[in-house]
Amino acid sequence: MSAHLFPDGSALPSPGLGTWKIPEELTPQIVHQAIETGYRHLDCAADYGNERLVGNGIASALNAGLCAREDLWVTSKLWNTYHEPQHVRAACEKTLSDLGIGQLDLYLIHFPIALEFVPFDKMYPPGWTAGGEAMSPIPVPYSDTWRAMEELVDAGLTKRIGVSNIGTAMLREVLSYARIKPAVLQVEMHPYLCQENLLRFCQEQDVAVTAFSPFGADSYLPLGMAEASERILAHPVLERIAAAHGKSTAQVALRWAMQRGTIPIPKTQSPDHLRENFDIFEFVLTPEELTAISDLDQHKRFNDPAVFGEKAFNTFFPIFD
Prior knowledge:
The chain is 36% helix and 12% strand. By secondary structure, it is an alpha/beta fold. It has an 8-stranded parallel beta sheet with strand order 3-4-5-6-7-8-9-10. 45% of the residues are buried. The mean pLDDT is 96.
C-alpha cells in the first residue's frame, strides 16, 4: 500500500475506499471485505447516510482481528447544515457515534456552502432539501466554521481537519488564517479534470490531495449526471495503456492518480472490483503514459452544485468559477 506521509510521520493510505452510494444492504460486508483485502483508508460522510452501516463493517473487521483500529484511517465530513459554529461539535459527535469509533483520523468541511440548521431528530442526514423545498445558503463565514473545526482537534475528536470542494484561491485564504492548517484537500480529480495548478499548489503547501470520482463519469451515470459517451474508462488512450500493462482501464486510472501524488478513493460494491482497484502496485506508468493521460484533460466537472442544484431542486449553488 502506498501512502502520503505527513511531517509528523503519520500516513494517509492509498488507495482508499469511497463509501458514497454503496447500497445499504451491502455496506457492512463491502467495508469488511475492503479491510480484508488490505484497504486501510475509509472515506465517509454524514451526508452519505450510511455511517452506522460503515461502522458495522469496521466493527466486524476489528472483531475478526483483520487489523487494529490504529491501522485504519477513517475520514468523515461536516455537512452543510452544521456550519454554524455551535453545531459543529455535535455533528462530529453524531458521526463518531454512528461509526462506533472514539476519534476520527480526518474531518473535512464537505462543501463551502452553509445551509440552515436541521435538528438531527427532524431529519438526518438532511441532504440539500431537508425533505422539503430546496434550502438557500445562509451567511456563515467559512473562517468561523474552520475555527470550530480546530476546536475538534483541541478536544481530541479528530486527529486532523481538512477541506473539500474548494479551489486554490479559497485554500490560500484558509491557510492565511488557520491556526491548524488543513491536512487534506478532497476534490474531484480524474483524467478529464486534472486540476494541475491546484495540485501543484497543494504539494507546495504540503496539503495532501484526495481525489474523489477517480473514474469520472462512472460515478454519475446512475444519477443521470453524465452520459455514457463521457466515460473515461472507455477512452482509447486508457485502453491502449491498459493493454500494454495487462491491466484494466480502471487500474490505469488509479495508477495515474497515485503516480501524480494524489490519493484516489474509488467506490465499488463488487468484491471483484475491490480486489482489482487494490491490485495497482506491481506496475508503473511511464512518463510518456502519464503525459498521454493528463493530456485528456477537458476541465470536465461532473460534481458541480451550480449544475446539479439547479437541475434537481431549482437552487443555484455556484462554488467553482
